[in-house]
Amino acid sequence: MTYSVYRRKDLESVIVPFFGRYPLISRKQEDFLKFREIVLLMQRKAHRTDEGFKSIVKLAFAMNQRGKQRRYRLEEVMRNPQRLHAEQLGFMS
C-alpha cells in the first residue's frame, strides 16, 4: 500500500499524528522525530526566516544519512539557499 501526500496540511493532520500513535520500531523512528520537528517548524513559519530555514535544512540533512537522492550538498544549500530555490522554480538555468 502506498499513501501519497501532496499538501503540508495532510502531513500535519494525518501523517504526523498517525506515526505519533503508532511509532516506528526501527532506526526510522529517529528520522520521523526529525521530520515531525520540520513539519512543526514549518507550521510556525520558521522556514521564512534565515535561522529557521537553516534549522530545517540541518534537520533534513541529518535524516537518511546516505542521502542517495540528494541533489545538493549541505554546504551548497547553506551557502546560497535563494539560488537553489530560484533554480527549482525555473528562474535560472
What does it look like?
The chain is mostly helical. It has one domain: Endonuclease I-creI (Roll), CATH 3.10.28. The chain is built from 5 helices and no strands. The chain is globular.
Which key terms come to mind for this protein?
93 residues; mainly alpha; Endonuclease I-creI; 5 helices
**Overall CATH class:** Alpha Beta
- Biggest sheet features: none
Q: First CA to last CA: what distance?
A: 37 Å
> What is the overall silhouette?
globular
Might you state the CATH topology name?
Endonuclease I-creI
What Rg do the Cα atoms give? 15 Å
CATH architecture label: Roll
Would you tell me the overall average pLDDT? 83
Secondary-structure content class: mainly alpha
Query: pLDDT under 50 segments (min length 5)?
Result: none
- Proportion of helical residues: 55-70%
Say what oligomer this is.
Answer: single chain
Number of strands: 0
Give a concise summary.
The chain is an all-alpha fold and 93 residues long. The chain has helices at 8-21, 28-43, 50-62, 74-79, 81-88. The chain has a single domain, classed as Endonuclease I-creI.
List the SSEs and their pairings.
Blueprint: H1 8-21, H2 28-43, H3 50-62, H4 74-79, H5 81-88
